[in-house]
Amino acid sequence: MVEEKIETKNTLEKISEKTLEERKKKLVNFLKERQIWVLGVLIIALILGVYIRTLPMQNHDIGRISTISEFLTGTAFNGKPGLWDITTNTWTLGPDLDPWLFLRDAREVVEKGSLPKFDMMRNFPLGFDNSIETQLLSYMIDWTYHLAKLFKADTNIEYAGVIFPVLMFALTIIVFFLFVREIFIRKEKETKLKANIIALISTFFMIVSPVFLSRTVAGIPEKESAAFFFMFFAFYLFLKSWRSEKLKLSIIFGVLAGISTALMALVWGGVSYAYIPIALSSFIAFLLNKFNKNRLIAYGCWFVFSVIIPQFFSNKYSIIGSLTSIDTGLAFLVLIANLIHLLIWETNLIKLKLLNELKIPKQIVSLILTIVLAISAGMILMGGFSFITDKIKAIHQIIFHPITGRWSTTVAENRQPDFKEWSSSFGPFIRNIPVLFWLFFIGSVVLFKKMLNKLNKKENWIITGLYLFFLLGLIFSRYSSSSIFNGENLISKTFYYSSAFLLAGFFIYYYYVYYKQKNRSFEEIEIEYLLLFSLFVLCLFTARGAVRLIMVLAPVAPIFVGFLIVDSIERARKSKDETFRIIKWSFAVLVILLSLAVIFGIPNVTSGFYQQIKSESYNFIPSYYNQQWQKAMQWVREETPADAVFAHWWDYGYWVQSIGNRATVTDGGNAIVYWNYLTGRLVLTGDNQADSLEFLYNHNATYLLIDSTDIGKYGAFASIGSNENYDRYSWIGTYSLDEKQTQETNNQTLFVYTGGVALDEDLTIKEGDKEIFFPGQRAGVGAIILPKEIIGNQTKFGQPYVIMIYQGKQQKVNLRYLYIEGKFIDFKSGIEGCAYIFPQIIQEGQGVRQNTIGAAMFLSPRLMRGFFAQKYLLNDPFNKFPNFKIAHTEQSLIVDSLNGQGMNLPDFVYFQGVQGPIKIWEIKYTGKEKVQEKYIDKDASKYLSWQL
What is the mean pLDDT of residues 737-750? Predict the structure, then answer.
C-alpha cells in the first residue's frame, strides 16, 4: 500500500509538472502570437500618463489627490482646478515663465491669424523680430484651441495652453513605445515579444520619471513638450527607413524622418538631440560598411528635408549655418563621405592603382578624403585655418565649460551640475545609492556587450571593459566640487579624455585587425544599438553640462532598465547549469525588485517615483507667490495706460507682457543681454537717479517693478551689472534671532542674530590708533547684535553692530544705520551699513505667532549705496530717488492673510524665506534726460571690454 501511494504521488507530481510546463508554453505562445495584449497595456500606460499629467487640472477643493477611478469617471474634474487665476476666475498656466510668451503668441494667432513680424511688447522700443525665433509651438497651441472648441464651445486660449502639454505627452508615449520597440525587434519571431515587453517597461518608467514632469505636465506648454514627440518620432522613422528593403519605403520613411526633425527644429533649439545621434550612429555605420544604395538615399532624404524645411519658416536657421555647425555639420559630413565613397569605389576611379594599393579599409580612405575636402573648403570659405581651430576650441569648451559669460552663469538652469547633483534625479536612494542610476548604468554595459556579440569573446570583453571605463570617465570625472574629480583639474580632464580615446583607439585597432583578417564581424553591429548608444552618450554628456538638460536623460535611461529586466530573465530561463541558474535567477529577481522599488518605493524606507510624481504634479499649480502676481497684474491691467512700458529684472518680462498686457524693456528671451547689464547697473544697483532716469527714458519706460524674490537674486543682477572688477557685486544676507543667545543685564538686553555671509568689498576700520583690514569675499559677517536699552520706564534700541570674522579672529564693528518697526535710525557713526530688523512668523502646532524682531538682513555699505536697498527695502531714507513715485504695493498673500487675522505685519516678514511685496513705481522724468544710442544699442562689445 505504501509503495502504491508513493507511486501515485510521483505520477501526480509528474502530471502536475507536465501541466505546469504546458501552461507556461501556452502563455508564452499567446504572448508571442497575439499582440492585442500589447495594445491593452499601452492603453493603460496612456491612461496613467494622462492621469498624472492632468492632476493640476483636477479638483483641488477636496484637499487630496484624485484617484484614477475618479479620473476615469470624470468626477476628478468637479470643483475648482489648481490651475486657476483668482482675478479672472478662469484657467491659468502653471508656475513657470517662458510658457506665458507662447500663450500670448498663441492668443495673437487666434485673434489675428498669424504672428506679427515684430513683437513690440518685447525689448521696447526696438521690439523683437519674430522671424528669428521658432514659432511652431504657438501655432500648435492655436490648433489645440480650435480642436478643443469642437468639443467645448466655451474653451478659451488659456485652456488650450493648459491641455496642450498633456495631449503632446500622450502622443509622446505612443511614439516612444514605437521607437524602443523598433530598437529591439528583429526579423525573428521571438524577438517581437521581448521588444514589446522592453518597450512597455521603458514607457512606464518614462511616464513616472519625476525629472521629466516639468516639461510635460498640464499648464506648462513648453517647447520640450512638443519637441520630445518629434524627436522620438524622427528616431522611429529613421530606423524604419534604414530597415526597409524596398527603396520606395526607404525614401518615404526618410522623408518623414526629415520632416519630423524639421518640425522639432521649428519648436525647440535642442534639435541637436536628433541630429547628433542620427549623424553619429550613421557615421559609425559608414565605417562599418553598413550603407547601401537604399540607406544612402534614405539618409540623404532625411538630411535634406530636415535642413531645408526650417529655412522656409524661420530666419533662425541658414544653409551655411546648417552645413558648418557641429551638429548638422556632422550629419552633412556623413552624407558627403558616403557620396565620395560612392564616387570613388563605384565608378572607374577604382581602377586607379594608388587607391587599389592602399592597405586600409575603403571607408577610411573615403573618410580621409572627405576630411581633407572639408578642411580645405572651410579654410577657403570660412576664413582660413582659424575655422578649424575655432571648432576644436568650441568642442573643448562644450565638454568642460558649456556655459560661459557672466550673464549665462547667473541663470540657475544653466548651472553645470556634478554627478552627486544630477544623479539625485535617478533615485530613489537606498543607503545613499541612486537605484535607477545603477540599473541603467549596468543595463547599458550589458547591452553594449550584446551589441558586440558577433566579435570574438576576447575582443568583446576588452571593448566592453573599455566602454565601462569610458562611462566611468564621462560620468565620474565630474563627481563633486570637493572631490579629486571635480571636472576642472588636470586629473579630471585626463580621466575624461583618456577614457574616450582608449575606447575609440581600441575600437579602431580591432576594426583594422578584423579587416586584415577579412573578418566581417564588425559589420554585424546593428545601427539600432548604435543610435541608442549615441543618444545615451549625448544625454549623459549634456546632463553634466547644464541642470536644465538633465531631463533629456530621463526618458532614455529607462530603455536600458527595460532591457536589463528582460535580458536577465531570459538568461536565467535559458541557463542549464544549476549553479549558474540560481545565480542568474537571483540577479534577475534583484533587478525586478529594485525596479519595483524605483516605481513604488519601499515602505518605511523610501517613496517611489509614482508617489513622488503624483505629489509633484498635483502641486504644479500657482502658489501664493503666483497669486500675488495675479493680483499685481490685475492692477496693472486696470490702472495703467495701455501703452505703459515696464522696467524690471528680466525674469518677469513674460508675466508683465502676458498677464499684465504691458510692454517691457527686458524679458526671459534675453535677446539683448546688454540691456540686462544696463538694468542691473543703472537701475537696480544704481547709485544715482540721473543715470537711472536717462536709461529708462531711452526706453520710454513709465513704471519700474521690483519683486521680493529679487532679494535672493541680488547677487545675480549685481554681478551682471558690475564692471570688469565687479564693483557692484553684492548679496543680501538673512539672519535669524537666536533667543538662546539673548543676553540680559540690569539695563540692557543683547539680541543675537545668527547666520553668515561674506563681506562684499574690502573694509578698513579704525580702532584707536590702529587700522583693521577685512578683505572682501574672505572676511565674513558672522552675527548681528542688537542692543535694547532700558532708561527709566522707557526702552529704546541701541546702535547695532556685527561680528566680523577673518582668519579665525572676531571683531566687533558698529553699523551706522538701523531699520526697525518702520523707522530708519542714523547713529552718525560706524560703517555705512544697516541692520534691517523685521518680524519672523513661527509655526506652533496648528497656529502661528510672530516675533516682531525675529529676523534681520545685513545691508552692507555697498548695498546701501544702491537703489534696491534705498528704495525697495528702506523707502528712500536719503531722498536720493524722489522721481520714482510709489504707485502700487501688492502685499504677499501670506502677509495679507495674517493681517486679515489681526497681526498688523509690515511689508516684509520671514516665513519660509523672506516674504515681501511687489512694488511698482511710476517714473517721473525731470526733462533733462537725453536720447543716447548707448542705452538702446544691442552690441555690448562697443562699450564693454570683457565678455558679458
Answer: 89
**DSSP state for residue 699 in the 8-state scheme:** T
Average pLDDT estimate for 45-56? 97
Answer yes or no: is pLDDT of 793 > 90.
no
Number of H helices, E strands in the chain: 33, 27
Nearest alpha carbon to residue 223 among 170, 171, 160, 270: 270
Q: What angle do CA 843, 848, 850 make, to 5 degrees?
A: 100
Q: Which residues pair with 812 in a beta bridge?
A: 803
Spatial CA neighbour of 562 closest among 41, 55, 53, 52: 41
Question: How far is residue 604 from each of residues 430, 595, 831, measured CA to CA in Å?
Answer: 12, 17, 53
Q: What is the 3-state secondary structure (H, E, C) of 344-409?
A: HHCCHHHHCHHHHHCCCCHHHHHHHHHHHHHHHHHHHHCCCCHHHHHHHHHHHHHHHCCCCCHHHH
Query: Alpha carbon 678 to chain centroid distance?
Result: 27
| Amino acid letter, residue 867 | F
Adjacent-strand bridge partners of 856: 735, 837
Which single residue is written with the C-alpha cell 503624483?
Answer: 614
Calpha distance 140→197 (Å, rounded): 33
Q: Could you tell me if residue 405 is left (phi over 0), alpha (psi between -120 and 50 degrees) or otherwise beta?
A: left
- Reference 780, options 816, 733, 748; nearest CA is 733
Model pLDDT, residue 913: 92
**Residue 12's pLDDT band (cuts 50, 70, 90):** very low
Q: CA-based Rg of the chain, rounded to a whole angstrom?
A: 32
41: number of Cβ within 10 Å: 18
Look at the block and give the residue holding cell 518702520: 822
- Residue carrying the nine cell digits 484617484: 67
HSE-up of 538 (CA within 13 Å, CB side)? 21
Give the whole-angstrom CA distance, residue 158 versus residue 783.
Answer: 48
Alpha-carbon span 27 to 317, nearest angstrom: 53
Residue 118 burial (CB < 10 Å; 0-12/13-18/19+)? middle
The CA–CA distances, whole Å, from 116 to 104, 126, 131 equal 12, 14, 9
Q: 421-424: long-range contacts (C-beta < 8 A, 24 or more apart)? A: 421/547, 422/543, 422/544, 422/547, 422/550
Is the Cα torsion angle 101, 106, 112, 113 positive or negative in sign?
positive
Decide if 213 contacts 617 (C-beta within 8 A): yes
**C-alpha cell of 466?**
573599455
DSSP string, 570-617: HHHHH--SHHHHHHHHHHHHHHHHHHHHHHHEETTTEE-HHHHHHHHH
Q: Which residue has the cell 586600409?
A: 360
Q: How far apart are CA 335 and CA 448, in angstroms?
A: 26
Residue pair 281/530 in contact (Cβ under 8 Å)? The answer is yes
3-class SS of residue 771? strand
Which residues are CB-contacts of 243 (< 8 A; sequence separation ≥ 6)?
182
| Non-local CB neighbours of 519 within 8 Å, separated by 6+ positions | none
**Terminal Cα-to-Cα distance of the chain (whole angstroms):** 97
Place of cell 532708561: 791
What value does the mean pLDDT take over residues 536-553? 90
**CA–CA separation, 199 vs 700, rounded Å?**
56
**What region does 670 belong to: left with phi over 0, alpha with psi -120 to 50, or beta?**
left
Count of other CB atoms within 10 angstroms of residue 821:
12
Distance in angstroms (rounded) separating the CA atoms of residues 692 and 695: 5
Taking residues 718-728, report their average pLDDT.
93
Q: How far apart are CA 564 and CA 441, in angstroms?
A: 10
Half-sphere exposure of 567 (CA within 13 A, CB side): 20
Residue 615 and residue 617: Cα distance in Å, rounded? 6
In sign, the C-alpha dihedral spanning 86, 88, 89, 94 is negative
